[in-house]
Amino acid sequence: MSSNTTTQNCSSVDNTIGPYAGEHCRGDFDFTLFFGEVFLSIVPLALLLVIAPFRIVYLWRKQTKVSRSSLLFMKMITWVLLAALDLALLVLWASRRTSKHRAEIPSAALSFVGALVLGLLSYVEHIRSIRPSFLLNVYLLFTVVFDTARSRSYALDPDLDLISAVFPLRVGVKLFLVIIEAREKRNFLLAKFADCPPEASSGVYKRALFWWLNELFKKGYSNSLTVDDLFHLDKHLQSDYLHRTLGAAWDRGKFSSPVVVTCTSPHSLFAETLKRFKWPILAVVPPRLCLIAFNFCQPFLIHKAVTFSQQSVTTQTSNIGYGLIGAYILVFVGIAVSTGQYQHLTFRFITMMRGGLISMLYSKATDVALADADAASSITLMSADIERIITGMETGHEVWSNTLEIALAMYLLERQLGVACAIPIGVATVSLLGSLGATSLVMQRQALWLEAIERRIAATNAMLNSMKGVKMCGLTDVLRQDL
């Protein structure tokens, strides 16, 4: 009687978007089946299937970098097994006399097709890329969690006994894929690519946790580090590559932006730098957006935890408590990972920018005539000016991200405080105007400081060129004090 009542209660909501299935349905703590199939299965797989053909074509044009090995054979066998289980689930869903919801067969069919396409993507990624597939690892990590939730829903539904028996096997196979797809291929790299740095061959999990640095930390803990102990630089961080990327483009003077820019315009170097390093700069945006999302999850979690602490202990509230524990773990781990990746990618593109600009200056210094050269200006550009540019770029992404955070905070304050939210908004506005005024003052002082550095370098250079006369006239102490 209880199972029939549960089935009746769930059947009325399982064909709706939900997402909450409501009370008296599968332990009072579950999604509707339609929501689970659409948003936990169809949507993520459809997004990946849109990207996968482009990735396959892109990699197919690259040369082979990894030899065929037992790891590749294991991957292919596991993908075939996953496709077979998806086909079995499709047959089980299609053979049912009554439908639970309208997305069950489309979801099963798309999963079967997806397993075949992703198996092909896994093969191409394995032999044509030196690192584990980012797309596959991210997709498998999230969907194995989603599939675990779906497996629980099927297990609690008495009408889905056969499906609830097969689906956990599919989850287990996918979990095995999570493990083997994340394995490094360094031992199987061809000789031409065997000396690549650890970061270049590390998977998404090692790079997210900076696990690839442990070898260097271990070596530094037992011995004093030398330059030879450091890892080889990634190709995109090497000076010759950066010079070709930025310096050569500057020499050609080719700009494809819609705004006409010439090498003599004030912002031409800035425009060309942004153009040549656009992808490293844009790579910072996703982790920064994730950090914003995780930060704004915290007030909602606190509100829910306070409300939860005032409720009596029941089966439903116990399930909510477990959900809150998982949510807190997800949010704080997400904050740590997204913060690390945001800062890492920020300093990575800053390093690329610094390397490109300094290589351009050195190249120009070797070509310019001695009569036209200003040693003081050149040295100032390679030291103080470059560092000033780099310091500004460290907070470059904070401009748009802080603007977005302020807008979201204002919206949330208005929901909680109403008209009273104008008070903290007014304080923030006054602070913003004050910081803008201080910024203009600081920029003027920085310009004076750089001019003073340039004069000091010029005087030092003149003194060193006339050192014999300085010593003969006994001006050493006087110039030491002045400089």
What structural class is derived from the secondary structure elements?
A: mainly alpha
Number of domains: 3
Strand content: under 5%
The share of residues in helices is: over 70%
Instruction: Detail the poorly predicted runs.
Output: 254-262
Mean pLDDT across all amino acids: 84
Order of helices and strands: HHHHHHHHHHHHHHHHHHH
| Tally of alpha and pi helices | 19
Strand tally is 0
Largest sheet: none
Radius of gyration: 30 Å
What coarse outline follows from CA principal-axis ratios? globular
Distance between the termini: 94 Å
Task: Give an overview in words.
There is one protein chain. With 483 residues, the protein is mainly alpha-helical. The protein folds into 3 domains: 195 residues, no CATH class; 135 residues, no CATH class; 93 residues, no CATH class. The chain has 19 helices and no strands. Helix 10 crosses helix 14. It is globular. The protein starts with a helix and ends with a helix. About 2% of the residues have low confidence. GO terms for molecular function: ABC-type transporter activity; ATP binding.
How would you summarize this macromolecular structure in one to three sentences?
The protein has 483 residues and is mainly alpha-helical.
